[in-house]
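Morning. Coffee machine broken again, so started the prediction first thing and wrote up yesterday's gels while waiting. Chain of 115 residues, entered below exactly as on the submission form.
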Amino acid sequence: MSTRPPLPPFTHETATLKVRLAEDGWNSREPEKVALAYTPDSRWRNRSEFVNGRAEIIVFLTRKWAKELDYRLIKELWTFGAIGLLCASLTNGTTTPKTGFARMAMRIGNSITMG
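Came back before lunch.
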């Protein structure tokens, strides 16, 4: 579970702020900054690749953003509750500029990222 404010239980205002802060962090394209938003033992799956822990997150994001020329993430709040929130994410992260957005869902709270 995240330890970075705002924390659950969320109001609509604090849930929206949490989503916006996450969006801003990702759009900074600073792997070290993004990795700090996740627990040290985080586990991600990106297609067939598995990423474990902050050090691997940093390596993964560094490689990802070196290839994805116009990376941009847009997050929108879907719903929130006592233990976390769910948001939709759209990314434009192709190796050629401006070719469209891919969708994914992200749960913040008891964090599991799907992509």
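Helices lie at 12-27, 31-36, 53-67. Going to sketch it on the whiteboard this afternoon.
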